[in-house]
Design a protein that fits this description.
Blueprint (H helix, E strand, L loop, with lengths): L16 H6 L20 H14 L4 E5 L4 H10 L7 E5 L1 H11 L6 H20 L3 E5 L5 H12 L2
Parallel strand pairs: 1-2, 1-3
């Protein structure tokens, strides 16, 4: 191990052994990662594996979804034979649908206008659960909201 390099034990298990091998033991801790891809490539599956690995280690985990309903998320988990017990789920799909509808009828970006409300909801859930692992799927594209998610990460 070179100077300044963290031991593999300090890494965050991704929940996928092959990915852990490639990453030298998992994701480096205390960092934010953007997983991007077309629908159906496995972003949700990877996210769930990451959270389930954390839950197995006794970590507090939170899944924030703007696109899937909780039921859709549970169905994905069931399709893999997984239980989401021990993982907090914050479903904001209704908020995302509202933003889409409002975007069609206003000159302002509704995400910027509603950012304060959704940020308060997310921060309240983070304060309640105090997660050490957080996944956010398909968050609004507004830069301000992405900065707010970064601020959540800074809390850890």
């Amino acid at each position: 191990m070179s100077a300044g390099e963290e031991p593999a034990s300090a890494r965050c298990d991704t929940g996928t052994s092959g990915l852990n091998d490639i990453l030298g033991g998992g994701f480096p801790p205390k960092a934010l990662y953007l997983i991007q891809g077309d629908p159906g490539v496995g972003k949700t599956t990877l996210a769930l594996q990451f959270l389930l690995a954390g839950a197995r280690e006794g970590k507090s985990c939170l899944y924030i979804t703007f696109s899937e309903t909780s039921e859709e998320l549970f169905e994905v988990a069931r399709s893999h034979g997984w239980s989401l017990d021990g993982i907090g789920i914050l479903e904001l799909s209704n908020f995302a649908q509202q933003l889409t509808a409002e975007a069609e009828s206003t000159l302002f970006d509704p995400a910027d206008i509603e950012l304060h409300d959704v940020t308060k909801i997310v921060f309240a859930e983070v304060d309640r659960i105090k997660p050490t692992r957080v996944v956010s799927i398909r968050c609004p594209s507004c830069v301000c909201f992405r900065r707010a998610l970064f601020d959540i990460g800074v809390r850890f």
